[in-house]
Design a protein that fits this description.
Elements (H helix, E strand, L loop, with lengths): L1 E2 L12 H6 L4 H13 L4 H12 L5 E5 L6 H9 L18 E6 L2 E7 L10 H15 L2 E7 L6 H13 L3 E6 L7 H5 L9 E3 L8 H11 L16 E6 L6 H9 L19 E5 L2 E6 L14 H15 L2 E7 L6 H12 L3 E7 L6 H14 L8 E3 L11 H12 L5 H14 L12 E8 L4 E6 L5 H15 L7 E6 L9
Parallel strand pairs: 1-16, 2-4, 2-5, 5-6, 6-7, 8-10, 8-11, 11-12, 12-13, 15-16
Antiparallel strand pairs: 3-4, 9-10, 14-15
Amino acid sequence: MNDQIQPDGSDAHESAHEYEHGALGDAEYAEFMELAAEEGFDIEDVEGAIEAAGHGPLPVLAVVGRPNVGKSTLVNRMIGRREAVVEDRPGVTRDRVTYEAEWAGRRFKVVDTGGWEQDVLGIDASVAAQAEYAIEAADAVVFVVDAKVGATDTDEAVVRLLRKAGKPVVLCANKVDGPSGEADAAYLWNLGLGEPHPVSALHGRGTGDMLDAVLEVLPDAPEQSFGTAIGGPRRIALIGRPNVGKSSLLNKVAGEERVVVNELAGTTRDPVDEMIELGGKTWKFVDTAGIRKRVHLQQGADYYASLRTAAAVEKAEVAVILLDASENISVQDQRIVTMAVEAGRAIVLAFNKWDTLDEERRYYLEREIETELGQVAWAPRVNVSARTGRHMEKLVPAIETALAGWETRVPTGRLNAFLGELVSAHPHPVRGGKQPRILFGTQAGTKPPRFVLFASGFIEAGYRRFIERRLREEFGFEGTPIHISVRVREKRGGKKK
């Protein structure tokens, strides 16, 4: 994954020292800053680039509430662009449910739970299930209520869910378009969630004050941290579209029926992570497979799958993505892969039902993998059968390989020697009579590996992809996305390119 100036937020939990200096030690940091000064870079600019690329995890804010209260409109207002789908018709599905936002200099992730359909169990069950998935992954919650309508029975059901979860809550009284509507908002004190913040998500009225309140309750970093207990179990999210065999695979690796596979629709449930002995080690499998299938949710099924996948990926270090080898690789499969990549998790591809394939299907599957999953050609792959247990022993080595790549750190000296040789042998193409050069770089963090490259001019996306490919050839990084940001040197007395 590449960004030209501003890198995507990392989800790794770094130590305080790594956060301060990226992944550089004190001596290495001092040497690097001296190099930066020699190349004419402003020191504060360099420090800012390293901090931006190497910062710790972003906190997660869930936006919940019943349909048509303006959740997606509020999310669009938060992220500053129209990206969340806004429609009056329930059942709208989307590729993404998580976005990145910034307010008052602080960045955070927003999980949008707008736009689902009402199933035959009724609106209460649909809202509760929807909110539960989002709250599970969140550090804080914005609960949106329509101030014009007031608190409904469905709102009361969500309030009970929020109290049970124990997460900080900011109450948003939406659709308050003027002073006259503030009296309606005041009635929402009765929900017992504290002060209602009167807002018009459509017009932007009051959203700044509400976001100020959000920052007061949102932690600087998620409470969930990776690998803090030495020797503690690593967290694995077993994800994939519905009916690819996640529950069956989890039961097989556990050696017992840990997960209920049930065609009956459910409402809410307590998420339980599974501690499983596999390959001589204990692993924590984040609960995604254990969510009962909701057969009545037809059009909204993809959306539910996306939401619970996002919740699981936020809690995990490794995403084991299960695909049905007997079927064509679907758009939903690709969405799930993209979600895991964008979250910066280590990735393993597991193709289930391998025992059912004939030679023809295997041939065409290989072609599909090349064309449809080319973006994760670096991910370890295992061909398994949840039904027979075939090749289950290969799962742990693949997970360990992905974790090793995820945590790989390249010393700055070695990285710059590599970059120098690369630029000399394969310089950037000349554009407009100029040839930008990569001057030097550093690895700002791990989990996933994040690099900052400092250049004399704009570096094209194709050349950055070339650098990533060569980084993988030289240093491995198997099983992990790589984040690369490029900082361009300012002209003397001029503006940044």
